[in-house]
C-alpha cells in the first residue's frame, strides 16, 4: 500500500504555553476524503474529559469538524485576522488549532496519544519532563495551566473595564501595560508567528530560561484504503515514535537539546514574519530551518525514509544513534513471496521478520557493499564488515563459515541484522543448474525504470529479452550462449533476484499410487475377508476394484491405514536397503518440502536422493513451484 504517513509535527509546552514548533513537509500530500466527524480513537481518550490547550473537550472528542473548517475559527485568536504574510497552515489546519488539540492534559501524557480529525490520524507520545523533581513535571504543568487561565480571565476583565472607561482592569493591570503586552502570549502565539510580530526571546520575563515541561512528537497519518491501518499505526508508534521520543527526552534532560532547538526554530519563524516586506515565502523559512536546526533535519530525514520504505539512520544531538523503520510485514502488498524485501522502487514482495536460515542458504545484498558499509554505525562488528565485503550469492552459509573462520550462529546473527535493516535477503545459492522464471509480482509498468539501469550495467544485453527467455521453466545454464558468458549471466540473475524480477522454482514431490497397486491390495483384502467371513468396514472393496485412476496421497504423515498399506507395497517393489530409505523419505513427499530442505533435515547425500527418485520414478511426481 502507499505510505500512509503525511507529516511530522513537534509540539512544545513551556512556561509560555503550548506551541507548534515544527511541521514537515511544508505541503503534505493529503488525499481528499468524505466529510467526517472528529473522534478520538485511543482508549485513553474515552474515559473522562480530554484537555486540549485551553479547551475542555469530551473524551470522545465529538467536535463538529467538517473538512477541517468548522469551529476551528472559534479556536483562532480574533486579533490574528489582520493582514499577514503567507499563511502557515499544515494539512489545512491552523497551527494554533493543531497545538491546542495535540497538547493533552497531564493525565494523558507519557502514553500513546491518538486523535483523528477529518480522517487524518495524529499519533504521538506526549512526554513530561522532570516529572520526578519537586516543582516540575505534573505539578508544574498544572500550575502553568492554572496561570494561563488566570491570565486569560485577567485579560478579559481588563478589556471589559477598559471598554467601560475604567482606569484599570480587574486584575490591577493598567491599560498602558495591557497595550504593551503581546495579546497572543497567553496562547503562545507570538513565538509561533501567528497574530504577532515580536521576536521570541530565549528567556522569560524574570530573566531565566523558559521551563520546557512537555513535548509531543506527532506523526500525521491517513489510511490509503487498504487493510491493517490500525496495525500500521501501532507499528509506527512502537518502532519509530517511542524510540525518537525517548532519545529526545534524554537529550533534553541532559543538555536542554529540545528547548534549544525549539527556540531556534521559533526565532526563525518570528524573524521572517516580523520583516516589513509585503510577503514572506514559507518555503524560504523551511529551507533556513532545515539548514540551521539539527532537530529539524532529523525529523525530515525520518519522514523521507519512512515514506520511501527505507531504514532511517539518525543521530540526535551528535550523541544518540538510532536506526528506525516500520516492519515491512505491516506494509505488505502481496499475499505470499519468498524472502522479498521492499527497499527499492518497484518492488512488491514481502519481508519475513524472522526468516529461516539454513546452512544451504545464501545471503543476497540489496545494495552495493560500499553503500551498506557507509550506512553502518560508527563502531560495527569487524565480522559484519568482513561479511559484507566478501559475501556473494553463490556461496552458502556453510562455505562462508569456513571462509570467515567463525560459527554458523555468528553468520546467522549478522545475516539477520542485514535482513532486518533491509540491506539483504535470504535466498538459495545462485547456480546455473537452478530454474528461474519471471516473478509473478513483476509490475510491467515499472520496467521502464529498470531498463536504463540494466543497460548501464550490462550494455551487451537487453532486459526485456532476458525476461522473455525466463518465461518457460528450464535450467538457467540453457540461457547462456557460451561458457564465456557464464560470469555475466550469473551477475544478471543476481540483479534480477535483487530487484524481485525473477524467482527460483524449487522441486517438490508427491507420492502417487497407480491403479494396479490398489487393485492388488483390494483383492488381497477381499480374499482375507472372504476366508474369515468378516467384512472390513474401513474399505469399500467394490469401489476400489472399479476405480482405475491413480491416487495422489496428500500427506503421507496423516494417511489412512489403507494408504499406509499402499505405500508399503510400493516400497517393497525394490530391494530392502532401498525400500528402507524410501520409507524414511516418503513423509516429505507431500509437496511441502523441497529437495534442499529434505537433504538438510535427513542428512543424506544428493546421490542417495537421486537413487530413490530413479528407482521409484513410477510412483513419484515432481513439480516446480516457487517457495511459499
From TrEMBL:
One of its GO terms (biological process) is positive regulation of autophagy. Residues 560-621 form the GATOR1 complex protein NPRL3 C-terminal HTH domain. The keyword Signal applies. This is Nitrogen permease regulator 3. InterPro entries: HTH_NPRL3, Npr3. Pfam families: HTH_NPRL3, NPR3. Mediates inactivation of the TORC1 complex in response to amino acid starvation. Required for meiotic nuclear division. Coiled coil: none annotated. It comes from the Eukaryota. Belongs to the NPR3 family. Keywords: Meiosis, Signal. Residues 23-53, 158-180 are annotated as: Disordered. Residues 25-35 have a biased composition (Low complexity). It is a peripheral membrane protein. Residues 36-49 have a biased composition (Basic residues). It is found in: Vacuole membrane. One of its GO terms (cellular component) is vacuolar membrane.
Amino acid at each position: 500500500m502507499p505510505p500512509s504517513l503525511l507529516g511530522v509535527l513537534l509540539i512544545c509546552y513551556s512556561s509560555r504555553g503550548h506551541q507548534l514548533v515544527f511541521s514537515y513537509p511544508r505541503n503534505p500530500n493529503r488525499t481528499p476524503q468524505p466529510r467526517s466527524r472528529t473522534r478520538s480513537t485511543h482508549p485513553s481518550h474515552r474515559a473522562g474529559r480530554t484537555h486540549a490547550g485551553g479547551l475542555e473537550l469530551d473524551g470522545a472528542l465529538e467536535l463538529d469538524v467538517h473538512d477541517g473548517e468548522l469551529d476551528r475559527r472559534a479556536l483562532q485568536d480574533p486579533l490574528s485576522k489582520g493582514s499577514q504574510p503567507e499563511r502557515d497552515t499544515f494539512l489545512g489546519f491552523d497551527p494554533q488549532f493543531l497545538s491546542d488539540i495535540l497538547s493533552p492534559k497531564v493525565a494523558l501524557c507519557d502514553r500513546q496519544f491518538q486523535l483523528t480529525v477529518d480522517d487524518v490520524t495524529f499519533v504521538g507520545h506526549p512526554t513530561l519532563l522532570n516529572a520526578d523533581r519537586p516543582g516540575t513535571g505534573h505539578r508544574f504543568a498544572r500550575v502553568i495551566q492554572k496561570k494561563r487561565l488566570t491570565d486569560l480571565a485577567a485579560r478579559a476583565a481588563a478589556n471589559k473595564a477598559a471598554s467601560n472607561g475604567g482606569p484599570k482592569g480587574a486584575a490591577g493591570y493598567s491599560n498602558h501595560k495591557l497595550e504593551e503586552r503581546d495579546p497572543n502570549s497567553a496562547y503562545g502565539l507570538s513565538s509561533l508567528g501567528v497574530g504577532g510580530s515580536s521576536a521570541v526571546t530565549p528567556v522569560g520575563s524574570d530573566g531565566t530560561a523558559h521551563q520546557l515541561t512537555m513535548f509531543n512528537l506527532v506523526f500525521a497519518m491517513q489510511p490509503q484504503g487498504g487493510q491493517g491501518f490500525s496495525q500500521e499505526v501501532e507499528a509506527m508508534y512502537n518502532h519509530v515514535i517511542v524510540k525518537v521520543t525517548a532519545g529526545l527526552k534524554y537529550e533534553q534532560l541532559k543538555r536542554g537539546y529540545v528547548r534549544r532547538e525549539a527556540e531556534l526554530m521559533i526565532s526563525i519563524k518570528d524573524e521572517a514574519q516580523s520583516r516589513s516586506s509585503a510577503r514572506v515565502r514559507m518555503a524560504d523559512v523551511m529551507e533556513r530551518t532545515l539548514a540551521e536546526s539539527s532537530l529539524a533535519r532529523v525529523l525530515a530525514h525520518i519522514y523521507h525514509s519512512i515514506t520511501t520504505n527505507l531504514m532511517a539512520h539518525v543521530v540526535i544531538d551528535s550523541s544518540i544513534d538510532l536506526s528506525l523503520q516500520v516492519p515491512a510485514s505491516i506494509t505488505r502488498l502481496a499475499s505470499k513471496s519468498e524472502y522479498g524485501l521492499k527497499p527499492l522502487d518497484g518492488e512488491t514482495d514481502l519481508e519475513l521478520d524472522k526468516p529461516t536460515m539454513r546452512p544451504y542458504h545464501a545471503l543476497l545484498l540489496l545494495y552495493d557493499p560500499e553503500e551498506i558499509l557507509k550506512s553502518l554505525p560508527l563502531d560495527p562488528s569487524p565480522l559484519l564488515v568482513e561479511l559484507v565485503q566478501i559475501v556473494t550469492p553463490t556461496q552458502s552459509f556453510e562455505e562462508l563459515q569456513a571462509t570467515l573462520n567463525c560459527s554458523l550462529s555468528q553468520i546467522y546473527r549478522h545475516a539477520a541484522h542485514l535482513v532486518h535493516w533491509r540491506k539483504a535477503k535470504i535466498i538459495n545459492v545462485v547456480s546455473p543448474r537452478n530454474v528461474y522464471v519471471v516473478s509473478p509480482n513483476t509490475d510491467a509498468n515499472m520496467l521502464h525504470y529498470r531498463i536504463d539501469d540494466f543497460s548501464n550495467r550490462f550494455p551487451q544485453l537487453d532486459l526485456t529479452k532476458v525476461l522473455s527467455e525466463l518465461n518457460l521453466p528450464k535450467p538457467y545454464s540453457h540461457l547462456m550462449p557460451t561458457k564465456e558468458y557464464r560470469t555475466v549471466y550469473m551477475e544478471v540473475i543476481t540483479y534480477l533476484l535483487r530487484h524481485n524480477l525473477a524467482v527460483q522454482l524449487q522441486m517438490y514431490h508427491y507420492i502417487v499410487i497407480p491403479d494396479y497397486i490398489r487393485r492388488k491390495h483390494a483383492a488381497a483384502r477381499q480374499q482375507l475377508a472372504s476366508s474369515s467371513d468378516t467384512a472390513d468396514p474401513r474399505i469399500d472393496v467394490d469401489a476400489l476394484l472399479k476405480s482405475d485412476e491413480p491416487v495422489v496421497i496428500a500427506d503421507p504423515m496423516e494417511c489412512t491405514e489403507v494408504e499406509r498399506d499402499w505405500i508399503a507395497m510400493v516400497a517393497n517393489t525394490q530391494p530392502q536397503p532401498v525400500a528402507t530409505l524410501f520409507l524414511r523419505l516418503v513423509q516429505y513427499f507431500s509437496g511441502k518440502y523441497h529437495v534442499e530442505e529434505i537433504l538438510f533435515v535427513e542428512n543424506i547425500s544428493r546421490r542417495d536422493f537421486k537413487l530413490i527418485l530413479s528407482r521409484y520414478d513410477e510412483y513419484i511426481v515432481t513439480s516446480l513451484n516457487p517457495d511459499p
